[in-house]
Specification:
Elements (H helix, E strand, L loop, with lengths): L16 E9 L17 E7 L14 E4 L5 H14 L4 E8 L3 E11 L8 E5 L6 E8 H9 L1 H11 L11 H7 L10 E5 L14 H18 L3 E15 L6 E3 L15 E5 L5 E14 L3 E6 L10 E5 L5 E6 L7 H4 L2 H10 L4 E6 L2 E2 L4 E2 L5 E2 L3 H14 L3 E6 L50 E3 L32
Parallel strand pairs: 8-18, 10-11
Antiparallel strand pairs: 1-7, 2-3, 2-4, 4-5, 5-6, 6-7, 8-12, 9-12, 11-12, 13-20, 14-15, 14-21, 15-16, 16-17, 16-20, 18-19
Length: 487
């Protein structure tokens, strides 16, 4: 049924008017350009409405049969379709002619055309519900011209067809429980560095290169001290603030793109609005990083006889909280029963710090560097108090620690992707961890004396309630002199 040969086209002035096909919506696979589907310009020869069996066998039942010429053309056919739709007789077979002796058929159903201004009906293919056609009055000569221009119309359809978007429902809550190592909490880790103020009143800021250098230095210092993290990505973030006109390093005219070239390395630039207030944009830097071997959950179960947890916590200058000491030789200590002691020893053997990344589901990692250069991180005093409260209340402690090598042997069943919400696994003392990382892995030097502060909460340890200013404006670190640094 290909239209390769040229058909003689009669004079349009003397050509009769016929009922023709108008393709309204293409099929899902563009099958309307094959011979099996109807095409714009096809001449309608026959309509059969009703429960159609085999047309050749003649078992039509109560079938309405219409042939060309159709009374009143398109308007007459629309009335017939309307009557059939009201009677719920929506099955229809359309037979069309192409040229002089080529024919095609379409099995379809009658549906209302919602896009039309008044009540109109179209035909939707049963084989492909995406494909829909309508009827239009044309001269026979015009139909033959359309049939002859099939190749050109295909090229035009190719250039005008646009991809459509849509929405799909997704089981977020279930996926966040099943496929996250910590349910409903991400494993994406980052720290935001604000540009450093170059004066005391914070009216001027160092340039972007200085902020990037600070991020680079922070990451290198973390790795040198033994924090097992690797660089993932870095990006700039724009933060809005109110400024005076002379504060901004550059002023951007919203109507001039040439001003944008001046913003490459500036940390603060401004826009003038129409109300006399200047809006400033601060360019901060966000550093994304990840633990070398991922995060591993540990459950510390408590007994009535426990008087201490058996480990001490400290904090690095870069703001990471880590296990600084673990009691040795006490097989009944909570730290030994949970396997924390073994992990601590293995980390020390490969010059790594056993960093605590989460307590419960809360991340306890540094998350911001202020414009004064101080690191916003977590207070070890309050963390020690919370751990001690766990011990007094006999409530199990769930923590996550950074692993340093993906080859570290984990207990059986400790799979990062679980079918059920993951639970912390206790690491038994007999578990042997993997050998140190190979030469292709990052090997920081042995950690020097890391300036840290140790905070504990245990019986007999007098706690000073002076709050660590990690969460305050100054961000200065205080040194605490305690009689014991064990929890």
């Amino acid at each position: 049924m290909r239209m390769d040969r040229v058909q003689p086209i009669p004079d349009q002035r003397t050509s009769p008017t016929v009922l023709s096909i108008d393709c309204l919506k293409g099929s899902s696979k563009a099958d309307e350009w094959t011979g099996d589907f109807l095409q714009t310009g096809d001449i309608v020869e026959e309509l059969r409405i009703g429960r159609i069996g085999s047309r050749r066998s003649g078992s039509s039942g109560s079938v309405l049969h219409f042939t060309q010429p159709f009374k009143n053309g398109r308007s007459g056919v629309q009335k017939v379709l309307n009557d059939a739709f009201k009677k719920k007789e929506t099955s229809i077979l359309v037979r069309v002619r192409r040229g002089a002796d080529e024919f095609a058929e379409l099995q379809a159903c009658i549906v209302p055309n919602d896009s039309a201004g008044k009540k109109q009906y179209v035909l939707r293919s049963i084989a492909d519900p995406n494909y829909a056609v309508g009827f239009v009055d044309r001269s026979e000569a015009e139909c033959l011209e359309l049939q002859a221009s099939r190749s050109a119309r295909m090229v035009n359809a190719l250039s005008t067809t646009r991809l459509q978007d849509g929405y799909v429902a997704y089981p977020w809550e279930r996926r966040m429980q099943e496929f996250l190592s910590v349910p409903s909490s991400s494993s994406f880790l980052s720290i935001l560095l604000l540009p450093k103020a170059s004066d005391q009143v914070a009216s001027r800021y160092n340039d972007l290169e200085d902020t990037l250098a600070r991020a680079n230095a922070w990451l290198n210092a973390c790795q040198a001290s033994g924090v097992p993290i690797v660089f993932m990505n870095i990006q700039t973030e724009s933060l809005l603030t109110k400024i005076s006109g002379e504060t901004a390093s550059s002023t951007v005219n919203a109507g001039s793109l040439s001003d944008l070239s001046n913003l490459t390395n500036t940390s603060l630039y401004g826009f003038e609005d129409y109300h006399g207030v200047d809006i400033g944009v601060v360019k901060a830097v966000r550093l994304w990083y990840a633990p070398l071997g991922g995060e591993f959950p540990i459950e510390i179960k408590l007994k009535d006889s426990d008087t201490r947890l058996g480990f001490a916590i400290s904090r690095t200058e870069e703001g990471f909280i880590f296990v600084s000491s673990v009691i040795d030789g006490d097989a009944n200590a909570p730290s030994t029963r949970s396997g924390l002691g073994n992990l601590y020893k293995e980390a020390s053997n490969v010059s790594r710090l056993l960093v605590i990344s989460r307590v419960g589901n809360q991340k306890v990692l540094p998350w911001m560097v202020s414009s004064t250069g101080a690191i916003r991180c977590f207070d070890t005093v309050s963390l020690s108090q919370k751990l001690s409260l766990h011990r007094h209340a006999k409530v199990p402690i769930f923590i996550h620690v950074f692993l340093w090598d993906r080859g570290v042997a984990l207990p059986s069943g400790a799979n990062r992707f679980r079918a059920a919400p993951p639970h912390a696994q206790a690491l038994p003392p007999e578990v042997q961890l993997a050998p140190p990382p190979n030469e292709n892995q990052i090997q920081p030097p042995a950690p020097p004396e890391v300036p840290t502060e140790s905070k504990v909460a245990g019986d007999g340890a007098e706690l000073r309630l002076d709050r660590d200013t990690a969460g305050e404006v100054s961000f200065r670190f205080h040194d605490f002199s305690l009689s014991s640094n064990w929890v």
